[in-house]
Amino acid sequence: xxxxxxxxxxxxxxxxxxxxxxxxxxxxxxxxxxxxxxxxxxxxxxxxxxxxxxxxxxxxxxxxxxxxxxxxxxxxxxxxxxxxxxxxxxxxxxxxxxxxxxxxxxxxxxxxxxxxxxxxxxxxxxxxxxxxxxxxxxxxxxxxxxxxxxxxxxxxxxxxxxxxxxxxxxxxxxxxxxxxxxxxxxxxxxxxxxxxxxxxxxxxxxxxxxxxxxxxxxxxxxxxxxxxxxx
Length: 231
What we know:
- With about 230 residues, the protein is an alpha+beta fold.
- The chain has a domain at about 20-130: Sandwich (Immunoglobulin-like).
- It has helices at about 1-15, 135-170, 185-230; strands at about 20-30, 35, 50-55, 65-70, 75, 80-85, 95, 105-110, 120-130.
- The strands form two sheets. Strands 1-9-8-3-4-5 form a six-stranded mixed sheet, with no helix packed on it. Strands 2-7-6 form a three-stranded antiparallel sheet, with no helix packed on it.
- Helix 2 packs parallel to helix 3 (about 185-230).
- The radius of gyration is 53 Å and the shape is rod-shaped.
């Protein structure tokens, strides 16, 4: 009876194996992606070996191993893109994927080999590497430049209208009852002002000629009267 119980316990341990936890890591193409993995190091003798593999953790070792360490240094490296930047002596065996690609997406196994039977620390990571998002700021900037052009035209037209109004108000005669309502009316007022300014000097010259004629006639009459008186 005891032998059957021992056999059942051994089979249970073999089929269940060590406890496996799973984590999800998301990164972007072209960026470095760090897949975390740590184990406890209380004494110098607790430093141990470990491996990273490109698949779920098997019953022993790592499937498709990409990097190995004896706890002190890297002993095997599948590619220079897989690196261990953490402090190995303190149990930081996090994996860094340099310049990640979409092909790097998948399952990664972190296996820390601890002393004793079936005591290995197993962590499965699901790594997802996505493409970087494309910025949409440039179309909005282009639209704002297009909408600014009509605004500048309206401002310039209002400035021209204001200029016409200022000229008409400063040069309009006092007899004008209302200001001009548009550029055409302002042009008519300016033309009337010019005609008025031209007609005033001509009337002054006519009056001066009339006075000169009357004076010359009076002088001739005086001369004739004197001549008759002398004769």
